[in-house]
Design goal:
cell membrane, transmembrane helix, membrane, mainly alpha, MetI-like, transmembrane
């Protein structure tokens, strides 16, 4: 019964993420024909209702439209930053695992120092260096997520490099680079792919947090963290302005985490 419930939860989470992706692709034609930047002073702070299912904000913009369009930015930053961190983490972690012990030790001490700090703090430091802006937000959250991928890639490399087929390839005189690309890297992808799925949620939260602090895109860009920030002073008067972006952030992060954990259990051969 417990395994069945978890299976249903994983399915619901996957369906929700699929709906978010579909909304990103077809929003202008199906989900909402309205312009997310269009203002209407006659519709200021309208509560949720017919015509405006999520209500309107302080300038009369449709909150539902802005939330739907905001998915493109927020999810795009999450996926893009995670993918970049994954690729760089695989390269650096593999090289560290194959490097001489001294180089590997120095590299991993640096990674361990970074892992001692929360990812959001590292992202804030990166933004302080790079400066605010949408591209720099994606870069900052990617840099913050990088140490975890390096550590896992390096650990998997240390295990795989001692496998019999790798030793056989080296004995046959196969070039070390070819051994790494053909045998070592493919065997690190499964655990890293699972971590990356969960990591998408973490990067979405980090990017939204930076935008909430005013370090990301600026108004009128429809981004979830920015929408949440715009409605924080209206909670007593118009709760819906901040409520719906906050709910979407929460559901997306939870869904990505649930799907990632289900993938991890499947990779470990567990059914529940």
């Amino acid at each position: 019964m417990r395994g069945w419930a978890r299976g249903r939860l994983g399915l619901v989470a996957a369906v929700f993420l699929l709906l978010i992706v579909v909304a990103m692709a077809v929003a202008p034609w199906i989900f909402t024909p309205l312009d997310p930047l269009a203002t209407d002073t006659s519709q200021v702070l309208r509560p949720p209702g017919w015509g405006h299912p999520f209500g309107t904000d302080q300038t009369g913009r449709d909150v539902f439209t802005r939330v739907v369009y905001g998915a493109s930015y927020s999810l795009g930053v999450g996926v893009g930053a995670t993918a970049a961190a994954l690729v760089v983490g695989i390269v650096v972690g593999t090289l560290a695992g194959l490097a001489p012990r001294v180089i590997d030790g120095v590299a991993m001490r640096g990674v361990e120092i970074l892992l001692a700090f929360p990812e959001f703090l590292i992202a804030l430091f990166a933004i302080a260096v790079l400066g605010p802006g949408p591209v720099n937000v994606a870069t900052a959250v990617g840099v913050a997520a990088l140490p975890a991928y390096i550590r896992v890639a390096r650990a998997e490399t240390l295990v795989v490099r001692r496998a019999g087929y790798v030793e056989a390839a080296r004995g046959l005189g196969v070039h070390p680079l070819r051994v790494a690309v053909a045998h070592i890297v493919p065997n690190t992808l499964r655990p890293l792919g699972v971590i990356a799925t969960i990591g998408i949620g973490t990067t979405i939260v980090a990017a939204a947090g930076l935008s909430f602090l005013g370090l990301g895109p600026q108004d009128p860009t429809p981004e979830w963290g920015l929408l949440l920030s715009g409605g924080r002073n209206l909670l007593g008067q118009a709760w819906w302005v901040a409520f719906f972006p906050g709910v979407l952030i929460t559901l997306t992060v939870v869904s990505a985490t649930v799907v990632g954990r289900r993938l991890r259990r499947a990779g470990e051969g567990r059914r529940s």
